[in-house]
Amino acid sequence: MKHNQSRMTSLILAMLLLASGCGSGTDNRTPGTDAPAAVPGVQDETRPAETVPEETEPGYEPLPQESMDGFEFRFFNYDNSYLTWSINILTADDITGEPLNDEVFERNNRVMAQYDCVISEKLDRDPTMSLGNLVKSGDAGAEVVMLYDVRVVDNYLGGNLQTWEVLPHVDFEAPYWSWDATQTFSSGGKVYAATGDFSLGQNTRSFILLFNKDMYANLGLTENLYELTSAGKWTMDRMLTASDAAVADLDGNGEMNMDDRYGAAGALKLYFGSLVTGAGIKYIDQDENGSPYFAIPGNEYAITVMTDIMNKHSGNNRFRQVAAGVHNGSNESKAMFINNQLLFQGTAMKSVANFRDMESDIGILPFPKYSEEQERYYALTSGGAIAGLPITLKPENYKNVGIILEALCRDSHDSLIPLYKETLLKSKYARDEGSAAMLDIIFESAVYDIGLSVLPDNTYIMYMEIFESGTDTFASKTKGKQKVVQKQLEKLAAAAEEKTEES
Hints:
Elements (H helix, E strand, L loop, with lengths): L70 E8 L20 H17 L1 E8 L2 H10 L7 E5 L3 H6 L3 E2 L16 H6 L1 E2 L2 E2 L15 E6 H6 L6 H6 L5 H11 L17 E2 L2 H11 L5 E3 L5 E3 L5 H12 L7 E2 L9 H9 L5 E5 L13 E5 L12 E2 L4 E6 L7 H17 L1 H15 L4 H10 L1 E2 L2 H4 L6 H10 L4 H29 L1
Parallel strand pairs: 1-2, 1-3, 8-11, 14-16
Antiparallel strand pairs: 3-15, 4-15, 5-6, 7-12, 7-13, 9-10
């Protein structure tokens, strides 16, 4: 592996370095004046460019061309009775005429023919829950296991996963692996879960914003949202201004209800969470030394942004919470969007398929920046399947597994990913050419946050509940939770240290 060890620092083990004050990362920025140019802890200048490298370019090393003599590479994957909110396909039995199925079939056949190997799949309702028992039996029955990302850390600390430095030929600096994910899911400089282009599991869990193009035009709104986005000028305030134009008492009864029209609606988990992440805010972050910390205490910018988001959605019907609770409301808002009652609809990438039969034309956008001063967009990505290596993976198979995973990623980067973006989303669902550049921006903007998967109740969810309450307690509740989160981080760090010492 071509790790840059000074960059890919521990997100868990480094918690041992926590000082007694988690809020040391004070940030006095104010909205609209000095918004963050990058997600803190993710140094953009160290991240490889998101481009397809030529095979002749330095650093893009050719894979060994050798026969594996029928070696069976087995995925342990979801059977689609659970984790239905992401696309989990990794193998296909035959050509069916369905583009994704057929491309996965052809891709696997290309790799199998090249290396004389067999790529197969063991299916389970929830591999995340089953892995522990299989490991105890001495054989997980797979070389790579796909895990629900919010449970990955538990599996790693529980001894079910090994770290990826054992695999030769896997190049995490290449554009077909997620750099941000490998930084987030790492401990002691060692990656314990990864996502790459061989799987659509995480790619289909980036949160995006749909807009009703027909409604937008009929309301007399003239700014080209695609051009705004490409120019880096698509901001929350511009989205809210457009939302104001959409608000209408359609039934004329003098009060706003479920029969009327709003700027947006849905689950706070998606909408508010995406606006916060879109501002470049992380809940658990790393400092310049790679030490993780609770990133909200002392962070004036983060508190100000969350307060501003809440205030700008108060009493104006820009956003309609159609169901109580931060996790609820997606089904109701989907029906409203299809019925032309919403200008905007937040959803996950995979869920765009739910709107393919909608009569009105729709477009795809990233969730907006908080201000134009940000150098990039940030797409909240959470809740999909991510790859882990079971602890039972045999050392004699490390080389074959590394080669096959790298080959699948390289092939998918040039075939499966473009097909998913261009053929399915652009042609069938979005029905316009303008979404093409938007999809590229969204795919390049995916960010992860360990706060979502390890400490959600006291970070991610807590702030959504404050938004839901309408009472500005962002600062006070952050202060109240600071010691609790610190203790949780220290406990997690101790477990990570013990795990590292055992390995």
